[in-house]
Design goal:
Blueprint (H helix, E strand, L loop, with lengths): L3 E2 L6 E2 L3 E4 L3 H10 L4 E4 L15 E4 L6 E3 L6 E5 L4 H10 L2 E2 L11 H6 L16 E8 L4 E5 L4 H7 L7 E9 L1 E2 L2 E10 H6 L1 H5 L4 E7 L4 E9 L12 H15 L3 H13 L4 E6 H4 L9 E9 L3 H15 L7 E6 L14 E9 L5 H13 L3 E2 L9 H7 L3 H11 L8 H7 L2
Parallel strand pairs: 3-5, 4-5
Antiparallel strand pairs: 1-2, 6-7, 7-11, 8-12, 9-10, 9-11, 13-15, 13-16, 14-15, 14-18, 17-19, 17-20, 18-19
Helix pairs in contact: 4-13, 7-8, 10-11, 12-14
Bound molecules: flavin-adenine dinucleotide.
């Protein structure tokens, strides 16, 4: 047995074996010969128990990390699904190519990011899975399946957000854009101004996100637009320092909410706007590692977001003075993938984080009903409690997506007890 835990430490697994895969053929042979369950592991950055198993094996695809130009398609690249995003992005940059958008970190494996519809922010920009042009999957019988967006419409859409079920991504072709540079601006905004003018605020730049500082009445904004200006020095990454200060305020002033509010508001008033320019592959990811956390994130219909955010903040500020991580608010464009939380819906993603050493279940139990009342769909890779019965009503093509998995993996080799509950497989 090789014990394993995820990044946050809230999910454990004890697979019988952990297999390092060296090639697509090795992957196909390993799957074909497996008699016990198989789960494919990326970088282990999901908070939901997608990789929880007590038997069978974990497959690691780190060595499937090739990146090459795609003949006849100058804005695409063929990429091994095991590549880590931070390995991929400088290589794409050297080829004059770029991902149109990225999330907060670049530690994930590409296959892991695609399998859970990982996303960044931008009203006109979809999640990573929507950048897929082609998938090379190894199905539950060890057979190679090549699915193309333009040729295999139904099966492609059913499998593009895969959760490591139905098939394992060995290689993908991603739709890319020419390299670009972003001018990033950090600024402060009151909650009232943000929520009363929400749609304008979220569309004020190519990428906009807000971090609401609980108990302060204010949010920090981050807005980025394309620029031709030269790269400037990146200002010191103050996110982690800021978090330590918020933790301190929660510890010292958690008993006195009005005082905490005054102290935080004063600290934020002194936060001046700053601007810098960075190449695309150095513009998105930040250091999120020093204080580990648990997280839930729901994707809400864009119109419902301001009311839901107000209710959420009220709930957290009243009932959980110990929660100090900012509430993260982002936008994601709709897509057409059956298990994408953005399926046919422009969304606003709202995330609640809590220090990993503290119990997260009570926080989740308090915020989930709010997210659900507003029609939220949970991030597949973050903590939530929904199972197939509830998910079916949120995803119009849920049954087709499940049927596709049964077809590709009739013996359920890629299932686990959690996956069976989640998808009703
Ligand atoms: C600090 C931190 C910051 C984060 N920031 C963001 C963010 O900005 N935006 C966002 O949307 N999410 C974010 N996440 C969540 C994260 O992007 C997702 O959970 C993602 O799935 C993790 O990728 P991974 O490589 O670690 O995958 P894992 O957690 O290892 O696996 C996730 C799923 O992918 C499947 N999988 C992995 N590889 C393959 C493959 N080759 N073929 C098929 N299935 C595969 C696994 O079986 C599993 O079901 C963050 C998480 C952390 C811890």
């Amino acid at each position: 047995m090789t014990p394993w835990n995820n990044w946050a430490g809230n999910v454990q697994a004890s697979p019988d074996a952990t297999v390092q895969i060296d090639s697509e053929q090795h992957l196909a042979d390993t799957v074909a010969e497996s008699q016990r369950p198989v789960r494919v592991r990326g970088a282990g950055h999901s908070f939901s128990p997608l990789l929880e198993v007590n038997s069978g094996s974990h497959l690691c695809l780190n060595n499937l990390n090739h990146v090459s130009a795609e003949a006849g398609a100058p804005r695409s690249a063929r990429i091994g699904a095991g590549v880590r995003l931070h390995e991929l992005t400088p290589q794409l940059n050297r080829m004059g190519l770029a991902l149109d958008n990225m999330g907060d970190i670049d530690a994930q494996a590409l296959g892991g990011a695609l399998a859970t519809a990982t996303h960044g922010t931008g009203q006109t920009l979809p999640c990573y899975s929507a950048m897929l042009e082609e998938m090379v999957l190894i199905d539950g019988q060890g057979q190679r399946r090549r699915l193309r967006r333009d040729l295999d419409e139904e099966l492609f859409r059913a499998m593009a957000v895969g959760l490591g079920t139905g098939g394992i991504l060995a290689e993908v072709v991603m739709s890319l854009v020419p390299t670009y540079r972003l001018s990033k601006r950090r600024f402060r905004i009151s909650l009232e101004e943000l929520l009363s003018d929400f749609s304008e605020q979220m569309s004020a730049a190519r990428h906009v996100e807000f971090f609401y500082i609980l108990h302060s009445g204010h949010a920090l904004g981050l807005a980025s637009d394309l620029t031709d200006q030269p790269v400037t020095d990146k200002p010191e990454d103050t996110d982690q320092k800021g978090l330590l200060q918020l933790r301190q305020a929660a510890r010292l002033l958690g008993w006195a909410p009005p005082l905490r509010k005054r102290v935080l508001a004063a600290a934020l008033r002194s936060h001046s706007s700053e601007q810098f320019v960075a190449d695309w592959f150095q513009a998105f990811a930040s250091d999120r590692g020093r204080i580990r956390f648990n997280e839930t994130e729901y994707h809400l219909p864009a119109d419902a977001a301001p009311d839901a955010i107000r209710e959420l903040i009220d709930c957290l500020e009243r009932n959980f003075p110990e929660v100090y991580f900012p509430i993260e608010i982002r936008s994601v464009r709709a897509d057409d993938l059956y298990l994408s939380p953005f399926y046919q819906r422009d969304s606003v993603s709202v995330a609640v984080h809590h220090e990993a050493t503290k119990p997260f279940a009570p926080v989740l139990a308090a915020v989930e009903p709010i997210f659900r009342r507003y029609g939220g769909r949970p991030h597949w890779g973050k903590s939530h409690t929904l199972t197939a019965g509830e998910l079916r009503s949120l995803y119009p093509r849920f049954d087709e997506a499940v049927a596709a998995r049964r077809e590709l993996d009739p013996k359920g080799l890629f299932n686990s007890p959690y996956i069976e509950q989640l998808l009703g497989l």
